[in-house]
Amino acid sequence: MLALQMFQTWGPILGLSEEENQRALDAGYQAFEDFDRSMRQRAREVFDTLERENRIGIVMLGRVYHHDPGLNHEIMEEFQKLGYPVFSQSFLPNDEDMLDRLFGEEVRSGAITHALDIRDVWKNAYSASTNQKIWAAKFTARHPNLVALEVSNFKCGHDAPIYSVMEDIIENSGTPYFAFKDLDENKPTGSIKIRVETIDYFLKRYRETLLKKADAAKDMERQLAEYERSLRMQLTRTSVEQEEIAIPFVQITTEPQAATASGDD
Prior knowledge:
Order of helices and strands: HHEHHEHHEHEH
Number of domains: 2
Helix content: 55-70%
Strand order of the largest sheet: 2-1-3-4
Distance between the termini: 115 Å
Number of helices: 8
Largest sheet: 4 strands, parallel
CATH architecture of the largest domain: 3-Layer(aba) Sandwich
Number of strands: 4
CATH topology of the largest domain: Rossmann fold
Structural class: alpha/beta
Strand content: 5-15%
CATH class of the largest domain: Alpha Beta
């Protein structure tokens, strides 16, 4: 359908043949796939850094146009200046190992049919953007280094039915959730900066909690490793002691044989 519409629109203007029109569409789709792949790859690289350094990233839950600084009042840029990478809901990494880590247990238990399934929380799939938003919320709720930031203009009517769904998904997991649901051209920038600074303060305290949990986990692993080592040493000592126990030696003697007729002594 798109090929036909493009040909009918641009064919007469550019003098394109149907074959040229199709080649142009194929090139456009390929460019989009390459861009999508590169963005997800870059997102994965940043994710790996967050996990390695135990830092926090922000997932922006919003429609495509909310990436426009003119609409979002440069909120995302402000967070990035503060050191928080901001991820788009459209380009979260979908590598198999990542999806298995976050959703594998639910897939194997039958709770969902595959990692991208959202029917466990939302059965009314009527909008691609809404579906992406809900799945991104599930993704965020399952990753310990992510927090959610939902944005919309005038409390967007299309997303109104899923507001409570989104909050339940994220908050039930203990993941921090923030929202700017009333963005518009007349929103005072001063109040936005105050909210950004307040969120920054909270996230610093939240990261401290993450670091303490990580240190506690490392300490527990160290204690378990030491306990396992002591058990192995104890078992080794016991084994050696058992081997050193004297085993009675039974001497076998033979009676002398009688001389034979051939004259053997």
